[in-house]
Design brief:
This protein has 251 residues and is α/β, with parallel strands linked by helices. 39% of the residues lie in helices and 25% in strands.
Length: 251
């Protein structure tokens, strides 16, 4: 972990040793009495600082894979060859629920298509709530100024310094997504997972959102795994993979 942090501070982008390694990941959902297999032995490596884009048809398991990587769900258990999901040499499949909660708070930022902002909170509060989740109520009180300053800086960077006290309902779709990105970055994650981050936006707004993500990723040395159906977006990434019949293929 120390080496990874040093490389990020030095502005490194990609290294050969993967920060994320996924092996033999299967996932099947039960819809009543019907079993719906989605992933069939996914293998994937992602290097530190790399931007990997996942393409695939609707229902191919793109979002499922992202949720598994982020610890929001667990892969199926197979007796013949157990699944493995390693992040910075942590075996996520063996982590407790509490440890996965900590993993998400410390190391992972999520950006979803539909924002998921809390409507009763202001823009600034929606971003700082991530710091409260990570540090707890008591820890947040001792770090309040630091977290608020970081949140304000992110919102300023994303052109929202004039919207700090507004509620989500008062924002455009693009502004809401910028708030969601700032929230995802508030705890300075090592890994950003983005699920169709421009899918709910018009072309021009989507491009500005993508530019904001790309710029921050470059400056922070952030590792990015993005799901999209837009091949124009995928073409900008370091590497494109496709999910075909529940398995990964290099595009």
């Amino acid at each position: 972990m120390e080496r990874m942090v040093q490389e990020r501070e030095a502005g490194a982008t990609v290294r050969s040793e993967p920060i994320l390694s996924v092996r033999n990941v299967h996932k099947t959902y039960n819809l009543g009495r019907v079993k719906v297999p989605v992933l069939h032995g996914v293998d994937l490596d992602v290097a530190q600082g790399e931007w990997v884009t996942i393409l695939g048809a609707s229902g191919s398991g793109k979002s499922t894979l992202l949720h598994l990587i982020g610890g929001l769900d667990r892969p199926d258990k197979h007796t013949n060859e157990p699944a493995s999901m390693r992040f910075c040499n942590r075996e996520l499949t063996r982590e407790s629920k509490r440890s996965l909660d900590r993993y998400r708070a410390d190391d992972v930022g999520f950006v979803f298509q539909f924002y998921h902002l809390l409507p009763e909170l202001s823009v600034l509060e929606n971003v700082t709530v991530g710091g409260m989740i990570k540090h707890g109520r008591l820890g947040y009180r001792t770090r309040c100024k630091e977290i608020v300053d970081r949140a304000s800086g992110l919102l300023d960077r994303f052109g929202l310094s004039h919207r700090l006290r507004h509620r989500p309902a008062e924002l455009s779709g693009g502004e809401r997504q910028r708030v969601a990105i700032a929230r995802a970055l508030i705890n300075e994650p090592n890994l950003l997972l983005a699920d169709e981050p421009t899918g709910n936006l018009d072309l021009r707004t989507g491009e500005s959102i993508l530019d904001a993500i790309i710029e921050h990723r470059r400056d922070a040395g952030l590792t990015l795994v993005m799901v999209t159906h837009d091949e124009r977006i995928a073409a900008k990434s370091d590497r494109v993979i496709q999910l075909v019949d529940g398995r990964v293929e290099e595009a």
